[in-house]
Structures are given as C-alpha cells and as structure tokens.
Amino acid sequence: MCRVRFNSGGFGSLPYYGFISALALDPIEKKPLYHFRPGTQILSAGFAGCNLRCPFCQNWHISQNTDIPGRYISPRELIAAAKNEAVSQIAYTYSEPLVHIEYLLDCMKEGRKQGVANVLVSNGCVTKGAAAVILEYTDAANIDLKCFSGETYSKILGGDLEAVKSFIVAAHGRGVHLELTTLVVPGLNDSPDELDASAGFIAGISPGIPCHLSAYHPDWKWNAPPTRADFLLEAAKRAGQKLRYVYTGNIGAARRPQNRS
User: Fold this and answer.
1) Would you say 212 and 247 are in contact if contact means Cβ atoms under 8 Å apart?
2) Which domain holds residue 160?
3) Shortest CA distance to 185 belongs to which of 215, 145, 229, 149?
4) Number of separate domains in the chain
5) Chunked in runs of 10, what are the mean pLDDT values of the chain (261 residues)?
C-alpha cells in the first residue's frame, strides 16, 4: 500500500531506499516541535509514499505518489549535509518516513555517531517491534494522533489506532522528547467526546506532553469546510483542562490558551 516496498520473488525489495523528495532548512517549530531546541533550524528530509490513505492529506502529492522529482542521497551524505549546515539535527518528515525504516536506521545510526540529533515526524502506525528499533535512535518525535476512533482509523485512514497509541506510549517510555499533533477535521474527528477522550489518553501518559491542534483545509479527496479558528481555540481550551501545553496551528500565529499549572 505504501508503494515503496515490494515482494519480489518472496524477498523484500526496496527500490526507493535513499530516495529523497525534498531537502530544506526549516524552523524546528514547523515540525511542529515547540519544546525541543526552540528557536533553532533543522534540516528536513522528505520521502515518498505512506502506509495510510488519509483522504484529507495535506501532502498527498508525495505521500500518495512515487512519480515525483527526487534524488538518491546516501545516509552518510545526508548526515554530512546536516553537519555542513551547522544545525546538528535532522528531521525525517513531509511524507511517512517509517515506510523507509531501513534507510532511516542507517541514517540515524550515522547521525548518532556524528552528534546529529534525529527527529522523527510520523503517523506512528507501526508494529511494536519496529517501534522499539527506531525509537532507540530517535531523540525527538512529533506523532500524528489523527483521531481517537478505531473505526475511523481502519475504515477511512487505513490504519490502526491501537498501533499508534502503542507507539506513543513506547516513545514516552524510551525517554524520547514527544509532541503530538491532531489535524482537526470538521465532521470527522471534531466531536467534543472524541477530542476529550484523546486529551484524556495523552494526560494518562503525561499531562506535560505538548499537543498541537491544527486546522484542516480542503485538500485531495476531502471537501468539508475548513476548521473554524474559534472552534479550534475552544477545543484547545478544553484540552488545556487536562494538558499543560496545547497549541493551535494553521490559523495564523500559533496560540496557546490559558492552561492549568
């Protein structure tokens, strides 16, 4: 389903190993990470393909398509690029990086040797075994908690909520700096009950995990109206009753409601 991993005669085939669709310097807050090295720049490496089929994907041009511009960059070259930019941190991002887990591991191991921090931006929809391996070399992560409905994950997104929850718990348990993002989509995952359940799950792990609620806009196959700014701010305020750090995105300047101490 990810379009980048194949069965070739009973053996795994990775024709997109090392294929980089984008390489750019970003503010680390764009990941979004607000509590990990704030105010710094990070080298972002983008890929192709994804193991989910979110019909509202904001990066569907690269996540749902492999016929895109790009070039091969070896793990050593990628880490050297981060060193050359003097940022000493790299984000694996833009589309789902974990469908390229072999390449990620090679890069992350090299980064660890060279003193380059590894930042994972992922949907977290992987098995426990894969999570354990990748988190060993992950310094910080922003994980998409796309909704808090198992049915929505399986029937609309093509994923598994329990796998994502397990990944989040594992990342926190490993001591990885963790922040979470939910794209709030009207009519899909914006009910007060679902948002409250999501905040409760996060608080049950740690109320100090930063949570980003981001506004959706119509894209790819989804044409619901955009998330209203006033609705998102109110949702963030409600989440702030359980979580210390709740931020809003895609509505202009990021804002945080008054949270409990």
Assistant:
1) yes
2) 6-249
3) 215
4) 1
5) 94 96 97 98 98 95 94 98 96 98 98 98 98 98 98 98 98 98 97 98 98 96 95 97 97 63 47
3-state secondary structure the chain: CCCCCEEECCEEECCCCCEECEEEEEEHHHCCCCCCCCCCEEEEEECCCCCCCCCCCCCHHHHCCCCCCCEECCHHHHHHHHHHCCCCEEEEECCCHHHHHHHHHHHHHHHHHHCCEEEEEECCCCCHHHHHHHHCCCCEEEEECCCCCHHHHHHHHCCCHHHHHHHHHHHHHCCCEEEEEEEECCCCCCCHHHHHHHHHHHHHHCCCCCEEEEECCCECCECCCCCCHHHHHHHHHHHCCCCCCEEEECCCCCECCCCCC
242 lies in some domain: yes
Alpha-carbon distance 141 to 31, whole Å?
Answer: 9
Predicted TM-score (pTM) of this structure: 0.95
> Which CATH number belongs to the domain containing residue 91 in this structure?
3.20.20.70
How far is it, in rounded angstroms, from Cα 143 to Cα 125? 9
Residue type, 47: F
Asked whether residue 75 is assigned to any structural domain, the reply reads: yes
104, 98 in Cβ contact below 8 A?
A: yes
Q: Name residue 222's amino acid.
A: W
Token digits of residue 74: 């070896």
Q: Which pLDDT score, from 0 to 100, does residue 57 have?
A: 95
On whether residue 259 sits in a domain, the answer given is: no
Q: Which residue do the tokens 């997104």 mark? A: 157
